[in-house]
Structures are given as structure tokens and as C-alpha cells.
Amino acid sequence: MASHYLRIIVVVLVSLAAGSTKHGFGEDSGLVGLPFSLLSPTEWTHRPVFIQAEGNNTRLLKSDNEFRGGLPLDEPIAFESDIFKGVIVIRLAHTTFDDNKPLPTWQCQFTLQGQFKEPIRMDELYMGEAYDRPLVGMPHPIVMKAVRKVFAFLVPGIQLDVDHPKHPRVLALYGGTVTALRVDKPGKEPNIAQVSRSDMAESSLLLSDKFTTAKARKSTLSRPRTASSLEFDTTHVYTFQHQDTVMNYTSYYANLAPGLIVDLIPHLDGQAMSLGAITNDGRWMFRFRIWNERTLLEWRKNDRRCE
């Protein structure tokens, strides 16, 4: 349940906020003064998106110079953080699939595989969005209070602070959020290049004999009280797959429902959204920012300097 609500929460809140201004993008965007690490959009490998490892938290195991046009899609990317070492494959429906193939039901999918460097209790690792600056046009505090009550019931343990004055965030427990999870002994894990090209089957019985289905695993690991009895250990190989049906990164529009599409650009203040997981004490397991050309237009408008 949590995996479906994370994006929808942000979308609902911005749709409650004041009206927004639309921005376009194309060959003549005229972007100048960009952060050097992003280059000009004309040099992006997957324009209009540019995927970037968050350097302070996620270290690539290849030289950054090999990814000057942005990280690749549909290919394994080796990385390491303070608490995890592994590989990730990111796929975006509107760039990974050409016009001759039907689009999948999801907008974005990532498959992550590797091992933890230290045991992490499952009630201490969260997935979602975290920002460095306030979001624009959030609802009135009275509305936010009501929204928090509703989502606290729907997603126990959720951190819903999108109206925070400095560091907005919306996070839910990682183990109860990912679409599918495999836990294997080293050497028995699936080939990530292959498993990332399909809907991965759940196989998490090594965590608990009660986890016969993804639904059973999510029911336990989405609640802090029940998740606290389990941990991600250092001896097994974990393969996580998550499918996001809401956020279209090639446009930065969120598809809330058929006919209901919300533009998030005016509310992000030039910030990029990201894929990531973070511990309670602020350590990132992984973090990859997904920039869009429209995001950079907003960045330029506000004369931002990326951190």
C-alpha cells in the first residue's frame, strides 16, 4: 500500500495548492549558467532527462567521466554507499521503450541488488522523497493537519513533512514499499540484467516463513512495530524491484488517474526528484537524482546554484 501512496501524496497536496504556470522545453531552451556537472541538455544521453548519482551519498564505481551525458538507462550501474554496495538498473517507460513496443503499466522501474555493510533494522530504513529547500504552494496548515491524520492511518509510520520550512520529505518504510523483494544466499541471486527486464517474482522467505507473497511481506514491513523485529543483514544478497505508476520523469507530470494529470515543476522550486532510501539517522543507502530539462528551466528562472 505504501508504494502506491508515496507519489500520490505529493500530487494531491500540490493539486490542492494554488494554480501553477506551465513551462515548455525543446531545442531552443537557451539554458545558460548550468551546473558544470549537468552540461547542456543538448549533450544529455537521454534528453529530456539526466540521471545523476548523489555524490555525497552514492559513489559510482566507475569514473564520472564515463557518464558525462548522464547515467545509462536499462544497464547495471555499480555503486557504493556507507551502508550498501551493489548495482542498480533504472528504466523509464517513455525512454527505455520505443514507439514500436507497448508501454508498461509503470512509469519508472528500478531494480537494485547487493549487500548491506552493517545490519539495518527494517523499521529504520525509509524510501521516498527528500528535498533541500521548501516546496512551493503547499496547502494551509489546517489542511495539512487533516491530511497527516488520514495518511497516518493508511500508511503507519509515514513521515509526511512536505510543508517543512527547510527540508520537506515524504517517506515510508523501505521493506514495506518496494514492489518485489528477493533474499538469496551469495551466489544464488538472480542476474540483475535479466530480472530487471521483467516483473520480478517475490522470494523473501529467508526473512520470514510468513512472507509467502509480496502482500504478506508488505503488511508486516510497512508497520514500524512489526518491522522492528526484522533486519537487513550482511550475509544475504538482496534484490529490490520497485515500480512507480504515477511519476512520469520525462515530463515531470504525475498521472494520478485517467484524465487527472498534475504538473509538479512549479512546486519543486527547481529541485530534482530522486530515487533513494535513507535511514532514520540520515544515511543514504542509495540516492539518484532524476533531472528534467523543465526542472533546469525553473532552476535558471530562480538563479539557483546546485549544491
TrEMBL record:
InterPro entries: Duc1
Record's keyword annotation contains Coiled coil: no
Domain Domain of unknown function at the cortex: 74-291
Pfam families: Duc1
Keywords for this protein: Signal
Keyword Nucleotide-binding attached: no
Superkingdom as given in the UniProt entry: Eukaryota
Signal sequence annotation: 1-19
Protein name, per record: Domain of unknown function at the cortex 1 domain-containing protein
Native organism: Nitzschia inconspicua
